[in-house]
# Entry
Amino acid sequence: MNQTTSVSDPSPVEKYRNNFLKEVEANVEEGDWVKMCMQCGVCSGSCPLGSAWAHPPQELFMMIRAGQREEVLRSESMWMCTSCYSCVVRCPRELPIMHIMHGLANYANRLGLAPKMNPTKRFAKLFWDNIAATGRVNESRLSIKLYFMNGLVSGIKTAFAMRKVGLGMLKTHRLNLIGFFRAGGIKEKNQLQQMLNKAYEIEDKRKGLS
Ligand code: SF4
Ligand code: SF4
# Structure
């Protein structure tokens, strides 16, 4: 044993694992893989969108290991992942990068640190509310709510800009406006709601809300 190292001193590896890295390992889906990243940059180079983000995956993993908690959890970057798997199939260390990206977004959301106006986050909420209501996606309602997500004027402008696409979809029966007024969905909606209520209860316990 090194003369300057006492028995209670953490190992060099343990010292390297800062509090935020430990927090990510404990709370983020597949977060215990972050320490395996060797910073080769293949994921960031392979990501079709990463160059447009403030922090592509490699950088986020470096920031986690540097303990930059606020910068990571308040970042928009992980919300922009399109789950294309390009990084996952190329990572020489086989990190489940895409899952970590979604896991980070989910964890930031649970902590209330996710950017409020992020369009992906807002679309995810619209999609969830839509499908959770009846057990099936009502595409007409989802599309219209998406168009009007930023208010009436913006919605009218978007609908006008997309009019040719909309008319084409109506003609080919890919869009059903009558469906907007129909509840539809699965037969056993009550059972679905019971399952969801149980899931919300478990989630609240995890967050320490009950
Ligand atoms: S490709 Fe894998 S090892 Fe390389 S920087 Fe990305 S996550 Fe790290
Ligand atoms: S899965 Fe996400 S992070 Fe990975 S390359 Fe695709 S968009 Fe980028």
In short: The pocket of iron/sulfur cluster (ligand 1) is lined by residues 37-43, 57-58, 61, 91-93, 95, 97 (CB under 6 Å). The chain is about 55% helix and 0% strand. Confidence is low (pLDDT under 50) at residues 1-7. Residues 133 and 193 are 8 Å apart (CA to CA).
